[in-house]
Amino acid sequence: MDSTWVAKELSWLSFNERVLQEAADPSVPIIQRIRYLGIFSNNLDEFFRVRVADVRRLAVFSAASKQDEYKALMEEIRQKVLKLQQRFDVVYRENLKELRRRKIYLINEKQLDEAQTNYVRSYFHSHIQQELIPIILDDANPIPELNESSIYLAIRLGYESQTRFALLEIPTSRLDRFIRIPSRKGKRGKVLISLENMIRVCLPEVFRGIFPLETADAYTIKLTRDAELELSEEVTHTFVEKMTQSLKRRKKGDPVRFVYDAAMPNDLLDYLVKRMGLGKLDSMIPGGRYHNSKDFMRFPNLGPAYLDAKPLPTIPVPVIDQAANILSCLREQDILLYYPYHSFNYLTDLLKTAAIDPAVKSIKASLYRVASNSHVVDALLNAVANHKEVTVVVELQARFDEEANIALSQRLTDGGVNVILGVPGLKVHSKLISIVRQEGSVQRFYTHVGTGNFNEKTATVYTDFSLLTYDQAIGDEVAKVFDFIAYNYKRHEFNHLGVSPLNSRERLLGLVKTEIQNAKKGDECGITLKCNNLVDRELIDLLYEASAAGVPVRLIVRGMCSLVPGLAGLSENIEAISIVDGFLEHPRVYIFRNAGEPRYFISSADLMTRNIDFRVEVTCPIYSKPLQKMLQSIIDLQWADNVKARIIDASQSNGFRARKKSGGKVRSQGLTHKFLSTGKLPRLAKLDYRPRVSKPKKKHKK
Questions:
Q1: What is each CA distance from 165 to 153, 200, 285, 461, in whole angstroms?
Q2: Residue 425 Cα distances to 231, 273, 441, 501, angstroms
Q3: Which of 80, 181, 355, 419 has its CA 20 to 30 A from that of 276?
């Protein structure tokens, strides 16, 4: 086994364990803890649909010499998931106990009194029964394709010495999963019951007296399928049709996980496994009574406000607010917005202003994921109505948003927008806007480069940077990126931007190599990388080389990290943390000390091979000294976090960073809000960027 490398799938599970830690943290408000259970569950669904599906495919189709390796990884994943599921069940019960302490009760059908039962029956007949479509299973007909976003009741019916099986989809897409009912007579408190438990109360009535039932027992099941899409390399007028067909195939994709109630009787379980064709490589996971815990993400707060996380007010940007308009502001200085601390409305204001400015000639934007009722899209359509030339790149392969993006591309096309449907073989993941404005006899660029999607909804819960700039050199190169997307046979020179797949790898590795040379010369050196995932093998090997040369490397990695810090003779100068808090940490920020003249970059690209080599991504330098200082201060706060920062190390144990007795608490997200509001930083330990040239040691064996 390679001790210098952590399989990305196991590292991802370690990240989801950090989410579960938040669900178990008594200092987190209880409603937020319940919602973390939902986030954990939602994450796990996607993990199986994408990452486990990939490993499963490799275990089947890779060379014979590699198949056993992937099968062993599948078993490691299964064991780790089982442990996490057991931990989830413990945390779930503890949180229900805490809800009860707050007089909020989530009960099952066996805990109802007579009045509550009557209420549930009435609610069932008036709201639920018409939504139910039971399916009686038999050997003569194929089992129906299960909707993987849903949960089902697998039902065992007993009558006249016969046993029949049925399936019933729980209609959570039409009805709330958690429904409030009256409290017990004479008791105080607020009571919720799940939709499936309401159905259990009235289960015989689902079958409308067709069978003279003696018993009817229901057990929850959930199936997760391979989410891989099979797509043609050609982007032609039939591309949307091919995407639509691929989405239909996804709904029939191979199963990769089957979760079932551990109390399910063997005859029903064996029947389902056989009829669904589940095999050895499919993860069959016994669980508790409830599945699709992702619905906890929308768990209501029935108690006082303090039981939920307190929202932070958005911070105004005075230089924009006091300017005549946002375009005139950008002519004076670059702006760096940091969501959700700053309002996403500033971004939509940029587009709305450009849409009605008579001097603006054209707008280009790349859309990966947008909100369902997007003000960004409205502004772009308004620009067409105001006679601007508008070009929008819509990435149809944005995973799980494909259907929405097909509809979006049609809406934009109908509105007169020139729509480009991505690049053959590459996802367009860059976050760009290019506005061209006529100023005198010349045309000038107003440009946006960001780390996150143009999505108002996620901008309230994801942290991300948006650079707004009048820098004409950057503007010209962003325009060239759009030209590459439209005509990808063209090749452009990029002196400022790192552009995947053209020069990102070369630029990134070159920056690391410069720090290695600085260390060897005795100059100031250091690397700070903040990202979602770090799994590119070539970059990791070079970071090991940098560490061995004495370069201090600091990593802030939210999710997967295949690099192993702290190995003697290999990575002892590398430290890594992961921050999981109320906002999802989403930006990519890269800082290189560069012999005392630090270089700062923001990027749409994670440090993964697919992002560096097989997507259209943009890494942009931050040249403004005030913005560099702002960026450094935010990263310094994150590096000093001793409340929500976990240590990433060889053990993958997710231990919290130790806090010195003499030092105060540093919770970076709250302190970042204070810093952006007031401009004041707390006293932080000074970071040492002097070269740490280690004495030669015996090389760590890979």
A1: 10, 15, 21, 43
A2: 9, 37, 40, 11
A3: 80
> Does 642 show up as a binding residue in the annotation?
no
Q: What is the pLDDT of residues 234-250, one digit of tens each?
A: 334 444 455 455 445 44
- Span 542-598, pLDDT tens digits: 999 999 999 999 999 999 999 999 999 999 999 999 999 999 999 999 999 999 999
d(CA 88, CA 91): 5
Residues with Cβ within 8 Å of 488's Cβ and at least 6 positions away in sequence, in order, are: 423, 424, 426
Average pLDDT, the chain: 89
Does the annotation place 289 within a ligand binding site?
no
470 is in an annotated binding site: no
Q: Does domain 323-492 have CATH number 3.30.870.10?
A: yes
Residue 379: other Cβ atoms inside 10 A: 22
For the entire predicted model, the pTM comes to 0.89
Count of C-beta atoms within a 10 Å radius of residue 395: 25
- Chain length of the chain: 702
CATH architecture of 499-678: 2-Layer Sandwich (3.30)
Q: What CATH number is given for 8-300 in this structure?
A: 3.30.1840.10
Strand, helix or coil at 617? strand
Establish whether 455 is an annotated binding residue.
no
Which residues make Cβ contacts (< 8 Å) with residue 535, sequence separation at least 6? Answer: 8, 11, 560, 561, 562, 607, 608, 609
Positions annotated as catalytic residues are 429
